[in-house]
């Protein structure tokens, strides 16, 4: 087999050395750096000619030692080395085109379990799977938010052969409850009806119908023969509508992110600082005055500069969260389209189109005509 790896051959001085070298020249064996010393003769050649050299050596009964000339080289210019390096580069590239794991990192194990089950039920993904068969980030986020209305956003990171889902819970909002049933539920906005959550009343519109502002969605008055019976209207009616928002924010922003929770042991007399903790372990009465074991929620502050490469990963989530905080409880944002963005003078400004799913039902207490 062809092998050009360089070798050094050393032969003890003998009267047959000169005929040996002449025979090698006659057989067209290339010899380089031939050195005659007092005790030995050395020269360089390649592994390709070693079998022929050994046959000649046996004829002249010489003692020969073989060394590799490239022992100290990191990369050797031989066939197997080049093939090995090619495989080292090709295998990671091929593996990077495959999704091996789908991980969910949430605040609680319960959310991780629910989100994982929903993800599997909707997309039926079995790893390993080619990246070409993975749905887009927008599709994954939209489907998960539709099923989990307690979430405001799902961060999706793809690193190598992993997909990491990081759900973010919606801010807690208190709802004012009233035991008094309304006469009707009217539409506060125009939109396409997606689903109902009705406890009392009669629907006056169907799913996928378009409702306009002021329309009666649910009636609390039901016709019974020639009479009208008041049963009251109570519930929620969700609809999709598009909301266009303009924004103008600095390109350099300060972000504060929550880090992983960790337990910390505080010894009184050594740790003097005040620690804000999430929860505290109950310790025996004799130990509690001296030691505290608390769970901390660390935060990390960092400076980030917005540019075009951070539109999907940072700018859109910031605008998503800002708009969501201004909307009523149980509202979700299904989709967002960046219409335009312009950088200049240390700011970025533009417009975003959001697809909102919101409860548009407004209870009306007084009797209203339909």
From TrEMBL:
<dbReference type="InterPro" id="IPR010690">
    <property type="entry name" value="YqfD"/>
</dbReference>
<keyword id="KW-1133">Transmembrane helix</keyword>
<keyword id="KW-0472">Membrane</keyword>
<protein>
    <submittedName>
        <fullName>Stage IV sporulation protein</fullName>
    </submittedName>
</protein>
<keyword id="KW-0812">Transmembrane</keyword>
<dbReference type="Pfam" id="PF06898">
    <property type="entry name" value="YqfD"/>
</dbReference>
<feature type="transmembrane region" description="Helical">
    <location>
        <begin position="79"/>
        <end position="100"/>
    </location>
</feature>
